């Protein structure tokens, strides 16, 4: 019996490491830098700072993840976060809006409109998603400079708004609670509701999804709208945490968000863009860069580290046997066709893959 059970146990262990490799990688990074910097890295203050400083990036990565699941790339997502933050702080600083929750609500509405424009141009006008969102990104960066007049906005920001990004109930940063709440909602919708399974089916093959009766175009528009709203909220959280809004904010969020989505795709729900993989990837990269800075690394290390992680995630996905079509189209990774799981219009039994149409 033992000889029969041993291979099974070995296979189970390999599957665990394969499916949850990103979690083990995060733990390994924490242990490594805890050993190298025992006085500074493994502290509640440092872990709290990592959670607080990167919660906004998780929202932005979630915002990018939704169009990716539907098979499209949204390059404007980071610019939307930057514009959302500058718009909220500008309205409060200039006295246009007295109550900060109303300013956040306006950002949500503006973000939804931007996402709607992107979605309609991609889904109904059939324009290239990369070109459309690249143009939107440029417009948003221009709007940031116009609205801020090229100056940092920091006066007149309500303390209640700052508390949204800076307070730590029970010693845990408040933005992290927002991240968990958003993650749970997305997880439930994507994995337990028909709308989520249909979104994965659209990413797998729009033509096949149409044949099963799925209304593809409204779903794609919805993915862009929801993604843009999440990015706008992330921008508000980021400026609340910092206490000011810079006209250059936004551009630095795109690469970490892309890296998180593709790194998260390699674990937990392997081969699919997924909520918990994306969130874990953000904090893995953040823990790695924080540890490197504590070892004396210079500022240029962070973008280099993000780029290495992104390329590494793509390589891991390619050689890890992932069957998603996203890498075939976006990253030009050639694979032989594999049978896809059948789906029905009323309820798909499981995601059939993702494809990011460029």
Key traits:
358 residues, ABC transporter involved in vitamin B12 uptake, BtuC, globular
Structure description:
With 358 residues, this protein is an all-alpha fold. The chain has one domain: ABC transporter involved in vitamin B12 uptake, BtuC, CATH 1.10.3470. The chain is 69% helix and 0% strand. The chain has 15 helices and no strands. Helix 3 runs antiparallel to helix 11. It is globular and about 70 Å long. It is found in: Cell membrane. This is ABC transporter permease. It comes from Arthrobacter mobilis. InterPro entries: ABC_transp_permease (IPR001851).
* CATH architect. name: Orthogonal Bundle
Sheet of most strands: none
CATH level-3 fold name: ABC transporter involved in vitamin B12 uptake, BtuC
What radius of gyration results from the CA coordinates? 21 Å
Helix content: 55-70%
Shape: globular
N-to-C span: 53 Å
CATH C-level = Mainly Alpha
Order of helices and strands: HHHHHHHHHHHHHHH
Number of domains: 1
Beta strand count: 0
Counting helices, strands and paired strands, the structural category is mainly alpha
Question: How much strand content do the residues show?
Answer: under 5%
Low-confidence stretches: 321-355
Query: pLDDT average, as an integer?
Result: 85
